[in-house]
Amino acid sequence: MIPVPVVVGCHVRRAGDCIPFCGVTAPGNLLIDPHNLISRWLRQRSAEHIRKQAEGQRPFHIPPLRQDLWVNAPTLRNKYKIMRSSSHRNHLYSFNRNPPYPPLQEKGASLVSSRPSQALKEWMEKQVSSARPGQSIPPDRALAEKFGISVRTVERLLSEYRDRGQIVRIPGKGTFVGQEEPEPEGPIEHPRSSADMLAETIVREISSGNYRVGEALPSNKFMCLQFGVAPVTVHKAYRRLEQMGLVTRIGKTVWVGSDLKTLVRTRPKREVYLVNYRSNDFSNVFRKDPLAAVYQKMERALFASGYMFRFMNSEDLDDACREWVHAKALPSGLVFFCTDQDQVEQIRATVHYLTRLRDMPSPRILVDLNTADYRTLPRQVMVFSRGTRITMATRALLHYLIEKQYATVNIYIDESRDLWSNYALMLLAKMKAESGAIHAPVKIHYVVKPIREGATPEQLLNIQGWAKHYFTRLLNKYGDIPLTSIYSDISIARDDSSLIARHGKADMWVCATADAAAAVFDEARKAGLAVPRDVAVLSLEDDPRYYHLGISYCGPDHDQLGYLLAHALIGDIPIAKTSKGYIRTSGMVIEKLTS
User: Fold this and answer.
1) Which CATH number fits domain 389-555: 3.40.50.40, 3.40.190.10, 3.40.1010.10, 3.40.50.2300?
2) Given CA atoms 282, 287, 290, 296 in this order, what sign does their dihedral have?
3) What's the topology of domain 194-263?
4) Which residue has the higher pLDDT, 222 or 4?
5) pLDDT tens figures, 320-360
6) Would 194-263 and 389-555 be classified into the same CATH topology?
7) Sign (positive/negative) of CA torsion 309, 310, 311, 314?
8) Could you tell me if 147 and 118 are in contact, meaning their C-beta atoms sit under 8 angstroms apart?
9) pLDDT in tens, 520-539
10) What fold characterizes domain 112-177?
11) 3-state secondary structure (DSSP) of residue 9
12) How many other CB atoms sit within 10 Å of the CB of residue 361?
């Protein structure tokens, strides 16, 4: 007779072993009723055997398990026609390929406590009594494998603790000790539709100035091809933007703007005051200042939306504020031009004075931040930092170099010339930090023309005063970069001539001034180098004197910045901000004939 395996709990043994846990109903059919059989078998044991077991002795002989008989339960049932009794149809028998988890009872424990389910129960008692609230418990499957029982058994046991409030089971999160649900580590993310995500993308484009007020949004067909979505998705996204008050539909065209009035040029009726520090001469604002193009664009954008600039000396601001409050006719906005630390106290007093009227809308206040500490400004003001322009332009330049796959780049800096109203060497610190942060596959070398003749790289970077703090902060924004690691990347130039001959040919020369870019362009042609095939030239200064050379340009997008500042004062669209709360601008690269 061939031995027939018999299932006992989660153990598999051969027929003929002395284990009274099963019964035979017919040849080849086994009826397993472990609950009743175990109870009956235990009652038949003598008190002496129970005493021996409590002392840790083995009252009866159990043959060792055969490792080759650990098989899958459904396979075993199908092969040998193992049946369950009708009274225990819901009992789940499981099999593990590894031996069951060893009993966790100490010497002297009872026989029942050696059952794997009882071991899990004892382990859970220790957890709920000693673990801190909110501590996680391993998943059900891990507990089942650890204690050698089925997942259903683990669920049944843990449900008892859940009903008593000793544990909390959160679908998708896990099981935790305690009566209160643990605080989520971050915001709970809800599934979003394609229309919602497309609408969010368009809002970001509007807030960054890529889609502007008064301009039409792309057609449905273009959006479908651009984002790979269905026409109904684009339609739903545009409907959401209409509900948000950001766009207006006229026929089949969707325009950026809250209503039809914003889409047509109206007569200016609202006033925005531009405050110049202790000066009635505004030629520096619109002609001489590096941000002159920004203020020109801002004035045009305000006028197109029904606003007009009024101009004021900062010394007259206090009297004007008292008149506005007395007449209960506040302006729509205030702009503080090129703010330094000396003006912060006046700005704080003005904001406090104009915002105390509860029955009138407060004017929007925009601060053009130059060297002041932004942390000392009131929270109600909107801040544009001139220093962010060098960050955005540097990032635009790096992305361009990587996209065009330039391997070697020489950056020429004239220390005596400011760059985007910043100390010129700040470009070196920013380029070094940004390129290291993104691991740019571009080898960048810096050629510097110092103010002090004969200065070495060590002397060049021995910066003093406020510029030293600013330089160090830019350099170490993403990690500690010692100055000694930069010395080998710097070469000293005596003048703008013979830059290629003295400092080597690179794939591209990036010059901080248009004069130097024109000199490199002329030297390359004299040396027989084709521009841009052999060497590319790019300028960081937009100088109309050299437009005829067609030199490519990289710098801040002043047109976009002026548009964003104007609509920050109007308040009709959301404005993108940096992590510090500054109005976000962007850089741009204009390819012409030299790149």
Assistant:
1) 3.40.50.2300
2) positive
3) Arc Repressor Mutant, subunit A (1.10.10)
4) 222
5) 999 998 888 899 999 999 998 888 999 999 998 888 777 78
6) no
7) negative
8) no
9) 999 999 989 999 999 999 99
10) Arc Repressor Mutant, subunit A (1.10.10)
11) coil
12) 10
In single-letter form, the type of residue at position 174 comes to G
Alpha-carbon gap, residue 521 to 511, rounded angstroms:
11
Strand partners of residue 360: none
Parallel/antiparallel/unpaired status of strands 174-177 and 136-137: antiparallel
Report the alpha-carbon angle 570-571-575, nearest 5: 115
What CATH number labels 272-385?
3.40.50
Length of the chain: 595
- 556 sits in which H/E element: strand 552-556
Alpha helices, DSSP H only, in 131-193? 140-147, 151-163
Burial of 222 (0-12, 13-18, 19+ CB in 10 A): exposed
Q: Are 438 and 398 in contact (CB under 8 A)?
A: yes
Residue 532: alpha-carbon gap to chain centroid: 37
Hunting for tokens 């406090």 — which residue is that? 352
CA atoms lying within 13 Å on the CB side of residue 226 = 12
Strands 174-177 and 167-170: antiparallel
Q: Name the strand (E) or helix (H) holding 297.
A: helix 292-304
Check: CB of residue 14 under 8 Å from CB of residue 68.
Answer: no
Cis ω for the linkage preceding 532 (within 30 of 0): yes
- The CA distance from 377 to 367, in Å, is 9
Domain segments of the chain as ranges: 5-88, 112-177, 194-263, 272-385, 389-555
User: Quick one: angle between helices 231-243 and 220-227, nearest 10?
Assistant: 110
Residue 49: per-residue pLDDT: 57
d(CA 269, CA 17): 101
Distance CA 561, CA 586 (A): 8
What's this model's pTM, rounded to 2 decimal places? 0.63
Q: Are 437 and 471 in contact (CB under 8 A)?
A: no
Contact, 255 vs 524, CB < 8 A?
no
pLDDT digits (tens, 9 = 90+) for 190-238: 567 888 899 999 998 998 888 888 888 998 889 999 888 899 999 999 9
Q: CA 292, 569, 389, 345 torsion: positive or negative? A: positive
